[in-house]
Specification:
The chain is an alpha/beta fold. It contains 17 helices and 19 strands.
Length: 487
């Protein structure tokens, strides 16, 4: 890759990456200054149990608790003993690790949060354990309302196929503390949620990526300002030798980029999938190709859309240019980027085409837990039978009207069926159902009677928690009922 001067002096720092974060073995032990501390874990889900085992293995004092009696019972079976909150001496607790799903905000703050204020205990994120390790790898943090899992997975895939051993962790479903580090790791690729970032105290990322911000999780964060601040935390501990990658296609992220140098220390690289950037990285989109424009080095190259079947749709352009920006900083050649982005298989439950029956195509977009994700799906199809519903989030589907032009009919299920029905009945023909199975079966029955091509799109625009544990379980169930009805 040709080195040229530019206003960010990117490649001067860029050269340091290969020297500072080498492929030396990672960490054998937690940093000494944390070894004599006492930790309290609240919430024994996947992350909490992983942290408990990690600390216990390091012979660090750790207490734990979960409000759910059944969870405590299961924890005891695997020899994790719990201590009631009222029996804990908080004056001896240094760090409290709350499960990401537990609120620390008034009026829903947990009892442990109240105690932490009284006894000056520090509440930290599960991501802070990345900093507690002595490490020699490059730490890459990726966040955004939508696209963060796809971008995290794509970056990891390209790195692993370019002789840069990498591992993905964080909100993608694999806690950092569960990693084995059996291989020499060069890059740690971390998907970071707003729940994790709002409590981040210690960890800093060598490369931080912010994709987009739209209304989501407001029942937790209470306001867009709080939500935006939580997402911005991904940059707060970065140093002058680190990099921030921000997509400016979104008004909230563009504002963060415009004020970046006032608030943060790292080097900003702007990316866009909608306009060419002279001093940034961008995409030009045509019918058959996309062009990657590197304004930093004044070069460009073309990717055939036919080679990007797992990253189809305009919504993936932002993921592609963000992935390229990370690969660029990691010194991955354009040839390797082209070759390995084409072999990326994509993730389940994200605008996933799962079946075809004559003129009927069926898509599983269970990951669309918010309005913005569903807008993207509706924008990419025609002649849509839209299946939606679940537990509505704050704001519901307000603002969906202009995306309904291609929706022929709606099939609503779950807790949200009545409120969504009132919002949509003036715009599209719709029917209501108790559950997802009945909604799909009705959509399929009607679609079979149509002469035109029909796209049955399951894009719920809701959380899954009324009938399912998570969007994965919901998506797997949808695949099962599709399979059973197409036999």
């Amino acid at each position: 890759m040709v080195r040229v001067n530019n206003c960010y002096q990117i490649l001067d720092y860029f050269c340091c990456f290969g020297l500072t974060w080498s492929s030396k073995p990672e960490v054998k032990m937690i940093k000494k200054k944390f070894q004599k501390k006492t930790f309290l874990i609240i919430g024994l889900g996947t992350s909490g149990i992983s942290i408990y085992k990690f600390l216990e293995k390091q012979k660090i004092k750790v207490l734990c608790w979960d409000d759910n009696e059944e969870v405590r019972r299961k924890a005891n079976i695997i020899r994790i003993l719990t201590t009631e909150i009222k029996k804990i001496d908080f004056s001896r607790i240094d760090f409290i690790v709350l499960s990401p799903g537990i609120s620390s905000h008034v009026p829903n703050e947990h009892e442990a949060v109240k105690k932490s204020k009284k006894f000056n205990c520090e509440i930290i994120s599960d991501l802070d354990f990345i900093n507690f390790y002595k490490s020699n790898y490059t730490k890459i943090g990726i966040t955004g309302t939508n696209g963060k899992s796809t971008t995290t997975s794509c970056v990891t895939h390209i790195c692993n196929n370019s002789n840069k051993n990498s591992v993905a962790c964080g909100n993608i479903g694999k806690p950092f503390t569960s990693l084995k580090f059996e291989k020499k790791i060069k890059n740690l690729v971390v998907e970071a949620s707003s729940f994790q970032l709002e409590r981040l105290k210690y960890t800093s990322f060598n490369i931080s990526v912010l994709l987009n911000i739209s209304k989501d999780h407001l029942e937790r964060h209470k306001s867009m300002k709080n939500y935006i601040n939580a997402k911005s935390q991904i940059f707060k501990n970065q140093k002058k030798t680190d990099f921030a990658i921000i997509s400016i296609d979104n008004p909230h992220t563009r504002k963060i980029a415009d004020n970046f140098n006032k608030n943060f220390k790292s080097n900003l690289i702007k990316v866009s999938s909608k306009k060419i950037l002279i001093n940034g990285l961008s995409i030009t989109n045509t019918d058959k190709n996309i062009m990657i424009n590197n304004g930093i080095e004044n070069q460009s190259f073309i990717i055939k859309k036919s080679n990007l079947k797992s990253l189809d749709g305009n919504h993936n352009l932002e993921n592609i240019i963000a992935t390229y920006a990370v690969c660029y900083l990691l010194n991955i050649s354009n040839d390797n980027f082209l070759k390995h982005i084409a072999s990326f298989k994509g993730l389940a439950h994200r605008f996933e085409r799962i079946a075809k029956l004559d003129k009927i195509l069926i898509f599983n977009d269970s990951k669309a837990t918010n309005l913005e994700s569903t807008k993207v799906a509706l924008s990419n199809l025609k002649n849509i039978f839209w299946i939606l519903g679940g537990r509505a989030k704050t704001g519901g589907i307000t603002g969906i009207e202009k995306y309904l032009k291609q929706v022929k009919m709606g099939f609503i299920f779950g807790e949200a069926k009545d409120i969504f029905s009132r919002q949509l009945k003036k715009h599209i023909k719709l029917e209501k159902f108790q559950d997802l199975k009945l909604a799909f079966e009705r959509a399929l029955t009607i679609a079979k009677k149509r002469d035109e091509e029909i796209n049955i799109l399951f894009s719920p625009a809701c959380s899954s928690f009324d009938q399912f544990k998570n969007f994965e379980e919901r998506g797997d169930y949808f695949k099962l009922i599709v399979k059973n009805n197409l036999r």
